[in-house]
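REQUEST ID: PR-0412
SUBMITTED BY: lab tech R.K.
PRIORITY: routine
TASK: structure prediction, single protein chain
INPUT:
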Amino acid sequence: MDHINKDNWNFCHYKNSNLTALVSFGASPEILEDKFIYYVSVIDEENNEQFQQEFDNVDTACSFINDKYAEFWDFKDLSFKEDTGGCGSCTAH
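STATUS: complete
OUTPUT:
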């Protein structure tokens, strides 16, 4: 089973119906604080946030998203194009 990890978090997510669970990246709003923040978010198909939780490091964010979604949601790796058929999918091309 595929999981989100520190090497693929920026191009993989979990998908279930019209919801997507992903890890994203941000920074502390305090100008003097040089701190990166990782978020686990669930968004709908119109990119409306349904849930978000903040983490101090990518490993903890990855553990959380995998524990919560990996067993029941589909893993999607956006670095690979899914074969949807149609022109260009046959051996003649």
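NOTES: The longest strand covers residues 19-27.
REVIEWED BY: pending
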